[in-house]
Amino acid sequence: MLTHLKRSIARDATTIDSFVNEGLETLHDRPKTHEEIGSSYKKHDELNSKRQDIFPLYERLESKNKLLRSVAGGGHDQLVQLQLKLDKFESMMDSHVQMINEQKDVLKKNLKSRYETFLTECEKMKARWKQLKPREQDMEDEKKCRDSLKIVREREKEIQDMIKQKNKMM
Length: 170
Known about the structure:
4 helices; Methane Monooxygenase Hydroxylase, Chain G, domain 1; mainly alpha
């Protein structure tokens, strides 16, 4: 009977330990993109729901260990370390959402900065176009017409690059 109790405690401790280790590994990841932030929220919710199953298991584990101590005179060795890991996990769960929100703010600031730079580049492009755009009198001479066409093609390439930049920001 004592052996069965020890095995049960060890099995439960292993289950809890593996959950906590996987959870800690997940909580250490710092999201860097919008998609990763969404994924982090989802992982946090999953961990939170699994945590609801783990705590009753941990309480039963403590009860079994208390019984083992009262019957055999000593408890299971892993439980002190497991309790420390579980406390660390709880602390990280509490700070994880805060870290995600901070990272989201950083991404917003970066995007805003990129957007403002993009607008500045658009204004510069507009000013260059006003200065260099072909005029009616440039179309009379073939050489001037070719030069004008070259300028238009260069501006078209710049516009395509700006469109790519805009799409990346979205």
